[in-house]
Design brief:
CATH class of the largest domain: Alpha Beta
Strand content: 5-15%
CATH superfamily of the largest domain: Periplasmic binding protein-like II
Oligomer: single chain
Radius of gyration: 22 Å
InterPro entries: Ferric-bd
Keywords: Signal
Number of helices: 11
Organism: Bosea spartocytisi
GO cellular component, one term: outer membrane-bounded periplasmic space
CATH architecture of the largest domain: 3-Layer(aba) Sandwich
Shape: globular
Number of domains: 2
Structural class: alpha/beta
Protein name: ABC transporter substrate-binding protein
Largest sheet: 6 strands, mixed
Distance between the termini: 78 Å
Number of strands: 11
Helix content: 40-55%
C-alpha cells in the first residue's frame, strides 16, 4: 500500500514537472528588455531566463535609468515603443510610468512568498532586490556609528559625505525615506548641514573618500562597502538601528508589449526562487525572504526596512528636491 502511494506521488510529481516544462517550452518569440542593470548583471539575468525559456529570443538594451527613460520617451513620441519589459533602478520611476499609463498590470503574478509592501499593490511593478542605504565609516574613525543621529555628533564634524538627491534617484528615495521616518524630519538634514556634511558625488565617489580617509563617514548603498571590505578596504558598513531606505530594482511589463506571454514569463521568473537566486549570485539582497543573503551581510531580520510609499514619494519628489537644495546650496 505504501509503495503504491509512493508510486502515485512520484507519477504526480513527474506530471507537474512535465507540465511546467511544457509551459516553459510553449513560451516563444522575441522579447526586448530595457534595463539599467550593469552589463554583467543584465547578461546574467538574460542568460538565466533563456535557460528556463529556451524558445524566447530575448535581447536587452542597457543604460542608466535616466537615459533608458529618455529613449523610451522618444519611442513613445514616435508611437513605436520597442521594449516589452523594463528592469530599472527604482519604484518611484516606475510609479511615474504607471501614472502615465505606460505599464501593464499583471494580476496573476504570484507574490505569495513576499511580505506586503514590497511590490506595487496594483501589480504594475515588482521588486527584484533590496539595495539599502546605510552608513559607511573608515576603520580609523574613533566613533563607530550605530544610528543615523550619530552623524550629527561633534566627532563627525566635517567628516561626512553623501550623494545628493538633486543628482541621484536612489539618494532622493533615501532622503524622502529618512525625512518621513526620523522624528526630526527635515531638521535632521539641517543638522547634517550644520555638521559640515558634503552632499555631492555618486556612491562610488563616497566610497573612495571614506576608504582613503578623505572623509571618515558616508551614506552609501550597502553592496559597495561590503564588497570592498572583503577585498581588504579599511571600511565598515552599518545598518542603522532606526532602519534603512531601499531601492528595489523593480521589473514591469510595458503597455503594448508585442509578446505578452513571454513578458509575463519574465516577471514569473524574476519573482521565482530560481530567479531570486540570480540576484543572490550577483551579490545583492534578494527581495524574496526565503532566499539567502550574500556573504558579508547580517541575518535578514537584522536589517530593518523603513516604510516607503512610492506613489506618495512621486508626489513629493519635486518639493523634496527644492527643500534639500535650500538646505545644502
Amino acid at each position: 500500500m505504501q509503495r503504491k502511494a509512493l508510486s502515485a506521488f512520484t507519477i504526480a510529481a513527474g506530471l507537474i514537472v512535465s507540465a511546467l516544462g511544457a509551459q516553459a517550452q510553449g513560451v516563444e518569440g522575441k522579447l526586448v528588455l530595457y534595463t539599467s542593470q550593469p552589463n554583467t548583471d543584465a547578461q546574467q539575468t538574460v542568460d538565466a531566463f533563456k535557460a528556463k525559456y529556451p524558445k524566447v529570443d530575448i535581447s536587452f538594451v542597457r543604460d542608466g535609468t535616466p537615459r533608458v527613460l529618455a529613449k523610451l520617451r522618444a519611442e513613445f513620441e514616435a508611437g513605436s515603443p520597442q521594449a516589452d519589459v523594463l528592469l530599472i533602478a527604482d519604484s518611484v520611476t516606475m510609479e511615474g510610468l504607471k501614472k502615465e499609463g505606460r505599464l501593464e498590470a499583471y494580476d496573476k503574478a504570484d507574490v505569495s512568498a513576499y511580505p506586503a509592501g514590497i511590490h506595487d499593490p496594483a501589480k504594475f511593478w515588482f521588486a527584484t532586490k533590496l539595495i539599502t542605504t546605510g552608513i559607511v565609516y573608515n576603520t580609523k574613525a574613533t566613533m563607530k556609528p550605530t544610528s543615523w543621529l550619530d552623524l550629527t555628533r561633534p566627532e563627525a564634524k566635517n567628516q561626512i559625505a553623501m550623494p545628493s538627491p538633486l543628482n541621484s534617484g536612489a539618494a532622493l528615495i533615501h532622503t524622502i525615506t529618512l525625512t518621513g521616518n526620523l522624528k526630526d524630519g527635515w531638521k535632521y538634514y539641517e543638522a547634517l548641514k550644520e555638521n559640515g556634511t558634503l552632499a555631492a558625488g555618486a556612491n562610488g565617489d563616497i566610497l573612495r573618500q571614506v576608504a582613503t580617509g578623505e572623509k571618515l563617514y558616508g551614506m552609501i548603498v550597502d553592496f559597495m562597502p561590503i564588497r570592498e571590505k572583503a577585498k581588504g578596504a579599511p571600511v565598515e558598513f552599518v545598518f542603522p538601528s532606526e532602519g534603512v531606505s531601499s531601492v528595489s530594482e523593480p521589473v514591469a511589463i510595458l503597455k503594448g508589449t508585442k509578446n505578452e506571454a513571454a513578458a509575463r514569463a519574465f516577471i514569473d521568473f524574476a519573482l521565482s526562487k530560481e530567479g531570486q537566486q540570480v540576484a543572490l549570485k550577483q551579490g545583492y539582497v534578494p527581495a524574496r525572504p526565503d532566499v539567502a543573503l550574500p556573504a558579508g551581510y547580517p541575518a535578514r531580520d537584522a536589517i530593518k526596512l523603513m516604510p516607503f510609499d512610492a506613489g506618495k514619494a512621486l508626489a513629493e519628489s519635486d518639493a523634496a528636491r527644492k527643500r534639500f537644495g535650500a538646505i545644502f546650496e
